[in-house]
Each structure stands twice: as structure tokens, then as C-alpha cells.
Write a structure and sequence with these properties.
binds zinc ion, about 25% strand, three-stranded antiparallel beta sheet, alpha+beta, 1 helix, HSP_DnaJ_Cys-rich_dom_sf
């Protein structure tokens, strides 16, 4: 899979269906389409707390920071 020119794509490039994250890898996330099972890569958003890729394609804290936030509540 070509990771050289990854674009911020959150909808399936094949059928425009919604994707869900199957595998975060460094600053990218691999998505799979709910409709046709097509897989593609997109950019991960940056965690606002630790400034690292959060492993999701939507804004929000990464998993470790999310659990820290929950403990503080
Ligand atoms: Zn699709
Ligand atoms: Zn974080």
C-alpha cells in the first residue's frame, strides 16, 4: 500500500461510505469501509494534550490521554 501521498480521506474512495479505524500506525490510520470493506490510509489527527497522533481520524485525545482525563473527572 502506498503511504507516500496519503490524503485526509475519511469517506470511502470507492463508494463514499463511512470508514472505521482498524489499525492506527504512527501518524496514519488505516480505515475500512462499512459498506464495501475497501481499506485505505488517512492521516491521524493530533492529540491536543500530548501533541502526538491520536490514532483516530477525528479530533480528540489519544487513548492514554483519554484515560488520564477520565481519572481526573
Ligand atoms: Zn466503500
Ligand atoms: Zn495524547
Amino acid at each position: 500500500m502506498n503511504i507516500q501521498n496519503v490524503k485526509p480521506v475519511t469517506k470511502c474512495p470507492r463508494c463514499k461510505g463511512d470508514g472505521f479505524v482498524i489499525a492506527p500506525r504512527e501518524n496514519l490510520v488505516m480505515l475500512e469501509c462499512e459498506e464495501c470493506a475497501h481499506m485505505w490510509l488517512t492521516h491521524s489527527k493530533i492529540c491536543p494534550d500530548c501533541k502526538q497522533p491520536n490514532g483516530y481520524f477525528v479530533d480528540g485525545p489519544c487513548r492514554p490521554c483519554y484515560s488520564v482525563r477520565k481519572q481526573l473527572l
